[in-house]
């Protein structure tokens, strides 16, 4: 967005009015990571006016506005913060403008008065910090402006805020958006949706500020949205775990607009929102996204290619020599931070989560070490999130647990697979377990599903880029128009509605019913411990698993009389068991892969460039043999060599791959493959420059593993009055698709007495 004030005279008037009795901030830049200089002032405004503070530099004496001039006397990164003063907290926003041209340089519009904005400045640049009181009782707020010196080795100066994009209502998206948003636009639009639709949209702030101190915000959309303890099933949509994957946040926010518009115009959508609650957090990682979005384009994925930053801004794990400086201007560059989608507790510490702090897939020092993942944990642990979708780019994929092959599919695999296929039918994507893309641990849905039983998916949006052209990567993918794979099929829009319909379907979760006096608070509670993976160390060692404690607590405020409460199964999938089948024949013998003579040329463009070794093999069927798992492995000598492995079926379609790099082997796996002819395609991605380093390989076959079944678990259900006094407790066991009638839940005898439900039915039998 590029905003110009109408005239230089008007700008000077703003400066004159704002600077009355104030000296411009003079800043110095010593070679230190500490602020070179700072200024703290108290701002005041008598009136609150709901307006976008970033839209324009406003004239002097505009109601609700307090402006302050700033001058930089050295190069650096200007960091401006707002913070509430003691007493009531309102909603203040602010923006930083170039004083000479009126151009917007940075802004922040979080839901409260805790704001942060940064921009690169050159010596002598004149700026105006414009603060706007938007809503609430707080007449005053604290403004602090720092100039951060760029530490040695921090690379080239970061670019000023990118201003391309568009807000004209000219696209087919629900908002009409035509260009990528900045963080302040996400923040403003989320709370503006809630202000404009108070009974349908509720804005919220998650409990853990980011490393840089930003609030993480979202909205929930539902009929009677402010009444959050209403017992409705929840669909949670998450965007921008990874900072450079801009389409994921755009589509999450467009989904909120879609629901608001549909509630007004479509009876079917209105009915869904009567029965469900859609919770949406478009920007899980605001620190990293702010860096990526305002960075200049490089596209080389080197250390200072900030536009392709993936991780958050955590610096505690980096060595002290790389921990100084602002996140967008520091010696570690984009390498600083934790991959949030490897930081969840689900099998954390295992394959696919790097232990090295500088790796793109760095898992962090411990499960949930990062405030951003603790925020998502809070949401999932305090709501009955019956469905979850984490939006990412890219790959045209619908992924479901497990992320690690040896975890084995859950007992829910048939229903999970069916729902994934339904989403894929709308998007044109391929639906598969996450490990088929590559094995990884510590991912969002691999924790949320195994710990709570709520179905979770990752959508890898688009075919080939982290953030491609907006018209293709966002508009076409969301609406289901060419060139998206979902063209003519409904696109992501239709897939999200299918997922919301599944959220509403009692067959996909459990249902508790009963009676309770109006205003009684019913609480479901579970505390349990789950092991991580054996923890892989940076030195190649493997240590014992860690034990992670989770607590799930959700509430229902009784409406009076009969209630209905949609919940997840009481037995978490981690202990419920694993899906499988009984063998129908013996295991097939090991088969060696015969390497063809010669060495194929190096090939970094497969499959467009078909150069590779191709070796066929056969999977036998019952009664001669029964293959539950087929593992194709290749290995070589030098770590500087890299062979990639692809498996094709008899029709030449890819069915598995292994392209990890950085090791001396690859392994691709087929689970329950159809009998027939397959081909191992071994691609010479990178060859050592000394002696030729060819590969050897083999195919191993394992019999199917029968299904396993674990113990059942229960919820603890309590009832309390408005004063918080416990009136009764009971234990509740309920499975997916079951409906349990609890009777009069607030009239139980002494605490700890077991409860046998009056009625338990499969939803399909009702």
Summarize the helices and strands and which ones pair or pack.
Elements: H1 8-18, E1 35-44, E2 65-71, E3 76-84, E4 91-98, E5 104-108, E6 115-121, E7 126-135, E8 140-148, H2 183-196, E9 201-205, E10 217-221, E11 234-238, H3 246-265, H4 267-275, E12 277-281, H5 286-294, H6 371-382, E13 385-392, E14 397-400, H7 413-427, E15 430-433, H8 444-452, E16 455-460, H9 470-479, H10 491-504, E17 510-516, E18 521-531, E19 535-536, E20 542-543, E21 547-557, E22 561-567, H11 573-576, E23 577-578, E24 591-593, E25 613-619, E26 629-635, E27 642-648, E28 654-658, E29 665-671, E30 676-686, E31 696-702, E32 708-709, E33 715-720, E34 726-732, E35 738-744, E36 759-762
Parallel strand pairs: 11-12, 11-13, 13-16, 14-15, 17-35
Antiparallel strand pairs: 1-8, 2-7, 3-6, 3-8, 4-5, 4-7, 9-10, 10-12, 14-16, 17-22, 18-21, 18-33, 19-20, 23-32, 24-31, 25-30, 26-29, 26-31, 27-28, 27-30, 33-34, 35-36
Helix pairs in contact: 3-4, 3-9, 7-10, 9-10
Write structural notes for this entry.
This protein is α+β, with helices and mostly antiparallel strands and 766 residues long. Helices cover 17% and strands 30% of the residues. It is built from 11 helices and 36 strands. An 8-stranded mixed sheet has the order 9-10-12-11-13-16-14-15, with helices on both faces. Strands 1-8-3-6 form a 4-stranded antiparallel sheet, with no helix packed on it. A 4-stranded antiparallel sheet has the order 2-7-4-5. Helix 3 packs across helix 9 and helix 9 packs across helix 10. The longest helix is centred in the middle third of the chain and has 20 residues. The two termini are 55 Å apart.
């Amino acid at each position: 967005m590029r905003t110009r004030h109408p005239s230089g005279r008007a700008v000077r008037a703003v400066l004159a009015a704002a600077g009355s009795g104030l000296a411009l901030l003079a800043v110095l830049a010593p070679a230190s990571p500490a602020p070179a200089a700072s200024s703290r002032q108290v701002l005041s405004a008598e009136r609150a006016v709901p307006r976008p503070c970033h839209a324009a530099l406003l004239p002097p004496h505009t109601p609700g506005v307090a402006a302050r001039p700033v001058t930089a006397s050295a190069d650096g990164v200007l960091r401006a913060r707002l913070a509430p003063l003691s007493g009531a907290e309102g909603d203040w926003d602010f923006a930083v403008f170039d004083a000479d041209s009126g151009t917007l340089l940075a802004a922040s519009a979080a839901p409260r008065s805790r704001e942060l904005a940064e921009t690169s400045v050159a010596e002598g640049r004149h700026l105006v910090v414009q603060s706007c009181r938007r809503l609430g009782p707080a007449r005053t707020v604290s403004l602090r402006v720092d100039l951060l010196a760029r530490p040695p080795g921090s690379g080239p100066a970061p670019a000023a805020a990118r201003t391309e994009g568009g807000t004209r209502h000219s696209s087919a998206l629900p908002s009409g958006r035509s260009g990528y948003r900045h963080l302040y636009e996400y923040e403003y639009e989320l709370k503006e949706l809630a202000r404009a639709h108070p009974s349908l949209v509720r804005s919220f702030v998650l409990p853990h500020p980011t490393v840089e101190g930003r609030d993480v915000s979202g909205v929930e959309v539902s009929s009677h949205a402010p009444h959050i303890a209403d017992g409705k099933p929840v669909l949670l949509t998450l965007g921008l775990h990874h900072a450079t994957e801009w389409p994921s946040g755009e589509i999450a926010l467009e989904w909120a607009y879609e629901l608001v518009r549909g509630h007004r115009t479509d009876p079917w959508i209105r009915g869904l929102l009567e029965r469900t609650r859609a919770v949406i957090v478009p920007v899980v990682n605001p620190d990293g996204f702010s860096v990526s979005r305002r960075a200049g384009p490089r596209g080389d994925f080197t250390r200072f290619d900030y536009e392709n930053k993936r991780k958050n801004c955590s610096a505690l794990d980096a060595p002290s020599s790389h921990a100084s400086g602002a996140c967008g201007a520091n010696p570690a560059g984009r390498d600083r931070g934790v991959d949030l989608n490897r930081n969840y507790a689900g099998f954390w510490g295992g394959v696919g989560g790097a232990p090295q702090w500088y790796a793109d897939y760095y898992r962090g020092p411990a499960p949930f070490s990062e405030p951003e993942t603790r925020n998502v944990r809070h949401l999932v642990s305090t709501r009955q999130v019956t469905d979850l979708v984490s939006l990412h780019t890219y790959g045209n994929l619908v992924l479901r647990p497990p992320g690690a092959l040896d975890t084995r599919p859950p007992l829910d695999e048939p229903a999970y697979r069916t729902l994934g296929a339904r989403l894929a039918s709308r998007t044109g994507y391929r639906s598969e377990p996450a490990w088929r893309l590559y094995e990884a641990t510590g991912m969002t849905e691999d924790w949320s599903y195994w710990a709570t039983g709520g179905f979770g998916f990752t959508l890898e949006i688009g075919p080939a880029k982290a953030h491609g052209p907006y018209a293709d990567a966002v508009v076409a993918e969301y609406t289901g128009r060419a060139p998206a794979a979902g063209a003519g099929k409904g696109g992501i829009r239709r897939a999200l509605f299918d997922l919301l319909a599944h959220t509403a379907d009692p067959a996909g979760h459990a249902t508790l019913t009963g009676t309770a006096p109006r205003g009684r608070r019913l609480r479901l509670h579970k505390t349990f411990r789950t092991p991580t993976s054996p923890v892989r160390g940076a030195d190649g060692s493997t240590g014992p698993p860690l034990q992670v404690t989770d607590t799930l607590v959700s509430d229902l405020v009784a409406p009076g009389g009969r209630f209905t409460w949609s919940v997840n199964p009481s037995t978490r999938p981690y202990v419920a068991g694993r899906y499988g089948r009984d063998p129908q024949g013996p295991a097939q013998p090991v088969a060696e892969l015969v390497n063809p003579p010669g060495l194929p040329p190096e090939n970094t463009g497969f499959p467009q460039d078909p150069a590779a070794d191709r070796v066929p093999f056969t999977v036998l069927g019952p009664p001669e043999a029964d293959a539950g798992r087929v593992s194709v492995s290749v290995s070589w000598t030098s770590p500087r060599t890299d062979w990639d492995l692809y498996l094709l079926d008899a029709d030449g379609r890819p069915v598995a791959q292994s392209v990890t790099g950085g090791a001396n082997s690859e392994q691709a796996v087929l689970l329950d493959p159809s009998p027939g002819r397959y081909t191992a395609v071994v691609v010479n991605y990178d060859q050592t420059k000394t002696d030729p380093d060819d590969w050897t390989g083999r195919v191993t076959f394992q019999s199917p593993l029968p299904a396993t079944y674990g113990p059942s678990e229960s919820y603890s259900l309590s009832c309390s009055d408005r004063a918080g006094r416990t009136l009764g407790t009971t234990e509740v066991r309920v499975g997916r698709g079951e409906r349990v009638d609890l009777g009069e839940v607030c009239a139980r005898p002494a605490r700890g007495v077991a409860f046998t439900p009056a009625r338990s039915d499969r939803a399909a039998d009702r």
